[in-house]
Amino acid sequence: MDKEKTRDEEKQQKDTSFDLSDYTIIKEGEAEILMHSKNQVFYNKTQVNNRDMSIAVLRTFISQRKLEHESMLDRRVKTGPKVPDKSVSEMEPPADSVQYNGKSNDGYELLEEMSSDEPCSISGAPTRNLQGKDREELKPARVLEALSASGLRALRYAREVEGIGQVVALDNDKVSVEACRRNIRFNGAVACSKLESHLADARVYMLTHPKEFDVVDLDPYGSPSLFLDSAVQSVVDGGILMCTATDLAVLCGGNGEVCYSKYGSYPLRGKYCHEMALRILLACIESHANRYKRYIVPVLSVQMDFYVRVFVRIYSSASAMKNTPLKLSYVYQCTGCDSFHLQPVGRTISKDNRLRYHPGFGPAIPQECSDCGKKFNMGGPIWSAPIHDQEWVASILADVKSMKERYPAYDRICAVLTAISEELPDVPLFLSLHNISATLKCTSPSAVMFHSAVINAGYRISGTHMNPLGLKTDAPMHTIWDIMRCWVKNHPVKAQPSNQAGSVILAKEPVLQAVASLSKAQAKKVARFLPNPERHWGPKLRAGRQITERIVKMLVGLGR
Hints:
The protein is α/β, with parallel strands linked by helices. It has helices spanning 2-13, 48-79, 86-91, 152-160, 174-186, 188-194, 202-207, 225-234, 248-251, 256-263, 273-290, 390-402, 410-421, 433-440, 447-456, 477-490, 501-506, 549-559; strands at residues 23-28, 31-36, 141-145, 164-171, 195-199, 213-218, 235-245, 294-304, 307-316, 328-334, 340-344, 346-351, 354-359, 376-383, 431-432, 461-464, 467-473. The strands form 5 sheets. The protein has a 7-stranded mixed sheet with strand order 5-4-3-6-7-9-8, sandwiched between helices. A 3-stranded antiparallel sheet has the order 11-10-14. It has a 3-stranded antiparallel sheet with strand order 15-17-16. Helix 2 (48-79) packs across helix 12 (390-402), helix 8 packs across helix 11 (273-290) and helix 12 runs antiparallel to helix 13 (410-421).
């Protein structure tokens, strides 16, 4: 009852001093924005999945941050008071206790400030104090949305996530900042008290605000590579960086040389290309973090719709940073069959009770594929360590299910999180059952039967959230091909030219006799892959562009 009363009061406090006839009101979650009829500011309805997933992760992060703070205080109580180390306390203040002075933009160009009598004036922002008796108190989280456009994402963070003290929304487009401020006023007192909008270059702003934000959100139109170096410096120790990349044509191998120039890795065009895109992005973020003696810990990595999205925590440690080569690998992909192999960049050995770091052993494979005799393409380096924290995934999924009505895209994000929770966390990349069958020119076994054969052979196997036919397994490739040889014996194929990869593979007798029985893998009756809710669900035009007659004809043609 109190919540409904508060919402009614907020509606009465909304600023509607502008003409609403030129705008369409768009509601998502608890936020509402005004969209101009001329598409002046970018907005994509499809990204509701992205925003819902981000809010779910953010809620879990706020809870985890509180638990970690309480745990730290408990440890201090148990160990007793310590004499402060002057050298440390003077050089590096606590990462989550950074001052900000509430000025308009610390020297950046701003639009004309709103008058102080307006409900969302930001000139009187509170000052966070490093000194005093409340030093041990956990401050509310500060969030930076580096590329805000209409401000919808920032508004949802401010209105829907408890425990957030301030959200800073940036954009270097004057029209976007005007729209964002208009939307802040339109959303009432809560939004105005927490959210501020600045006209600024996100890269410069983040560089001049090092270790100030508990959460930094990057969701650019295209590649995030330009913003990563400044973003990893702007996050506090233990904070979280949320980053989207929509340039999948580049990350998935369409333009390998462009990907290398932007991300420092060469992609391969396999069925696992979307997972490789995620791992390339993680490796790139780690590379930028390492330059400042920092490193990342991924908690969730997602491929949805037309983009990849990663959520990583960032820490500072010169010693932990040395483990980075152990988390990176090169990928060798056979040009004839689906076999792939990973070559770790580094390794460690223990000598005289000390851990020493050395280059990885190589080559991991001969020049010709042992299964089909073809050559290999080499890609990477990619992040080969786990891309999810399964405890976080379980916590996020439980939180989403407990607040079903607060997520507009509940069905989709619940399906994705369920699929992620079932993935093998320590197995990089995946195979495609249909691709394996296509190589042999045979009919495809059912996923349940194939899962069962791999499990009975003594290995682990799971699906993947990126592909309904994807299989993640720790079984070596010769075991996979043995299972398929046994399948082909019971389901013969037509004779093929002897030089084809499938013919070479089937010419060998299986060493393993595959046994298939009913698997429990499909026991949960939960949909993992849902159809798009609307036609033409995907990327949208840039702000300022209009749909021409030519585009309409093209869309009509695609719909037939």
